[in-house]
């Protein structure tokens, strides 16, 4: 047995989560869905307690002179609590990924082989201000049979504490292990560090937030990490694009909601369509309040274009800014994307079947889109019903992550006495 | 552009691999299979050159007083080279995982969504003595469209250099990028360190070898790692087991080939069957040359049993040794496995449907087996046709890894002008 004396609170919490996960892994969909409804009921019933805790966080943030956008994301209202509870109820309508048979066959020697989905185990989520993530993430982990360790930001500590307390009370009321949902103890950076070193106790860490947060987790963790979110997304307007459509899709991709990871950050324009496209596109971008950071050729079409530097093409602005460049060919567009993109989402606008096929084959991003807005890379839009984040990496999960992405698999092999010595099927 | 001046040879090799991977990713199955046949032909034709290089390695190992088992694994013969070439030809018969549509649908707004398999990109393999791994791994990576960086042990350096040179010549002859197959330059531990820090250039590292190698890669790498192999596998003999069958399966699991990761290392016996099972099992194990490290109850059945310490139950012996314990119940067996297992493979021997169901549901290992030998956890036995290793982790791949496990996916979304503003499907 491992000596547990002198262990930190974080490691102790991870051990409790591990125990809870073993219990939760074998609960039925019925039990988990009933708990999700019970949590939704409890959040609605306890809204005053949540709002009181949240008011404390908001007051502290205001006193500290926090940016008003961040204060807004931190703020809960009765309506927002209702929406959070409704989102949990929606998770009950989704299929349980646990137990799904991914593949199976009867082997030549009669062994019955099934690969079935099982929970990952203990999932750590490290996230920034929004308290709704506390409940969303807990709900998705619960449904997929995982225990969750929630490490929110200290600015939301009172809100998160109230939300987690209410969720744990509801779990207890349903006979489910309360330690399936825990806040990571401690507000300091040390607690994140300990979480990142808890290999063997924590099965995966999912950082959700800005690039700095994600990068620090990715490089500092011995626990496997799923990298999420940073999106330097491209719109490529091909020589054969429909100009009206290209302008509409560019504006939607950039300006419909510029603060999100699937918003476009760079537009690349084939030189043969530059003259037809750029004057109209620049006018439409200006009308939408977008500042264009362009190369020399783009700048030639409008005095409002700010000269782009090399750094602009690497940027995820997350604001009403866009980088722009004219390219000589489809190949040059693909080469630009390979160099500068974070490989989240890239879109081509074209009427050419050949160009669309080349672009979708050769652009290696989580989502490659033809003749539609980059803004569709989203678990909700893809029909997954819920999303724990958008993976930017190639291992385990790529693109929007729904419930199946919160699972692993195991092989179940049923025989009637097969030995390797007498019944090998291997060639 | 990234400044590449002053970069190490390892990083330069990784950059070349990245370029090669982009090319290889869009090659057809036909092109890749032709290259695999060309490599197999070249290895057969150049066997004398390989044997000469191998003789150098073997002589050096003998001079250094290397263990004879390791010298044997290092040694190539004309027959072994033929077998290596035949294994490559077999890979041509396997389906190309690249391009497989994993899921797809038409969304409510008319967007056509497909999730398709794509290569991971650049795969690093860090492995020990056997030169056959050099060719096996290169072949599987080539078939799955990945560039490979091979980091073998210095004891096999001449053999590996000859094999890689021949494979690269064959690639060149087929018009495929030669840098799709590279040896990691440099023999020192520094080159492994650089490989482990090449995040962004290398997509995944797969260590194959002993526990120390795997552990050092897992903890030292910022590149994502797929942990392979260490197997502390259990056979649990349930109260309702058929004794004859239990003895036969135990002997097969332990002694059919004790040096491999799916061999059993611990046998757990339900107390109600101990008296019927243990005397026969201990006699059969003794006859097979197996030393039993048992608890007090097991020791009561034979004077040959060595008293087990706590450490024995954590051990992967990889030898003709086995730990043994009597447990009070199925639950106690599951609890023991949860504490001590590396979660590779566990087998239950039972006639009870209820016990089998509980064991397969609650034991969380890569493979959970009912009434068959632990030795079946293997890509060949599972019908995968080839295996790059057996994953011991929960993220990305678990259990035997075939060609699909060497891929990621991307979403391809085809529309006809959908914008988020006007055509959102999200609720």
UniProtKB/TrEMBL annotation, chains A, B:
Origin superkingdom: Bacteria
Catalytic activity: L-glutamate 5-semialdehyde + phosphate + NADP(+) = L-glutamyl 5-phosphate + NADPH + H(+)
Start and end residues of each Aldehyde dehydrogenase domain: 4-293
Pathway: Amino-acid biosynthesis; L-proline biosynthesis; L-glutamate 5-semialdehyde from L-glutamate: step 2/2
CDD domains for the chain: ALDH_F18-19_ProA-GPR (cd07079)
Stored InterPro entries: Ald_DH/histidinol_DH, Ald_DH_C, Ald_DH_N, Aldehyde_DH_dom, G-glutamylP_reductase_CS, Glu-5-SA_DH, GPR_dom
Enzyme Commission number(s) of this protein: 1.2.1.41
Cellular component terms per the entry's GO annotation: cytoplasm
Presence of the UniProt keyword Cytoplasm in the record: yes
Locations listed in the record: Cytoplasm
PROSITE patterns reported in the protein's UniProt record: PROA
GO molecular function: glutamate-5-semialdehyde dehydrogenase activity; NADP binding
Enzyme class: oxidoreductase
UniProt keyword annotations, A-Z: Amino-acid biosynthesis, Cytoplasm, NADP, Oxidoreductase, Proline biosynthesis
Function: Catalyzes the NADPH-dependent reduction of L-glutamate 5-phosphate into L-glutamate 5-semialdehyde and phosphate. The product spontaneously undergoes cyclization to form 1-pyrroline-5-carboxylate.
Protein name: Gamma-glutamyl phosphate reductase
Annotated organism of origin: Actinocrinis puniceicyclus
């Amino acid at each position: 047995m491992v000596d547990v004396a002198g262990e930190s609170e974080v490691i102790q919490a991870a051990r409790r989560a591990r125990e809870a996960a073993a219990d939760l892994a074998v609960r039925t969909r019925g039990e988990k869905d009933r708990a999700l409804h019970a949590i939704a009921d409890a959040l609605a019933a306890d809204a005053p307690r949540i709002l009181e805790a949240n008011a404390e966080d908001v007051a502290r943030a205001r006193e500290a002179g926090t940016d008003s956008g961040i204060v807004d994301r931190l703020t809960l209202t009765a309506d927002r609590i209702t929406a959070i509870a409704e989102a949990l109820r929606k998770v009950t309508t989704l299929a349980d990924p646990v137990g799904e048979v991914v593949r199976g066959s009867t082997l030549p020697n009669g062994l019955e082989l099934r690969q079935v989905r099982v929970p990952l185990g203990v999932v750590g989520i490290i996230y920034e201000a929004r308290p709704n993530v506390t409940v969303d993430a807990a709900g998705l982990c619960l449904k997929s049979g995982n225990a969750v360790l929630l490490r929110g930001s200290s600015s939301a500590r009172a809100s998160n504490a109230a939300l987690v307390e209410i969720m744990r009370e509801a779990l207890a009321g349903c006979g489910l292990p309360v330690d399936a949902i825990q806040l990571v103890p401690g507000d300091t950076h040390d607690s994140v560090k300990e979480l990142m070193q808890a290999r063997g106790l924590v099965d995966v860490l999912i950082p959700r937030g800005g690039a700095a947060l994600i990068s620090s987790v990715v490089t500092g963790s011995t626990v496997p990490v799923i990298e999420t979110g940073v999106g330097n997304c491209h719109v490529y307007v091909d020589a054969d694009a429909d100009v009206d459509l290209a302008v509409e899709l560019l504006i939607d991709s950039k300006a419909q909601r510029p603060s999100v990871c699937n918003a476009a950050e760079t537009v690349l324009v084939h030189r043969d369509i530059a003259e037809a496209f750029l004057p109209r596109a620049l006018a439409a971008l200006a009308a939408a309040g977008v500042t264009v950071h362009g190369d020399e050729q783009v700048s030639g079409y409008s005095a409002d274009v700010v000269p782009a530097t090399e750094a602009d093409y690497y940027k995820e602005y997350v604001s009403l800014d866009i980088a722009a460049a004219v390219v000589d060919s489809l190949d040059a567009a693909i080469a630009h994307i390979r160099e500068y993109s974070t490989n989240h989402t890239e879109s081509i606008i074209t009427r050419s079947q050949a160009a669309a096929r080349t672009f979708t084959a050769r652009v290696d991003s989580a989502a490659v889109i033809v003749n539609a807005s980059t803004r569709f890379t989203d678990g909700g839009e893809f029909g997954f019903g819920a999303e724990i984040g958008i993976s930017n990496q190639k291992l385990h999960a790529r693109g929007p992550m729904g419930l199946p992405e919160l699972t692993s698999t195991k092989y179940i092999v049923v025989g009637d006495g097969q030995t390797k010595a007498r019944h090998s099927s291997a060639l």
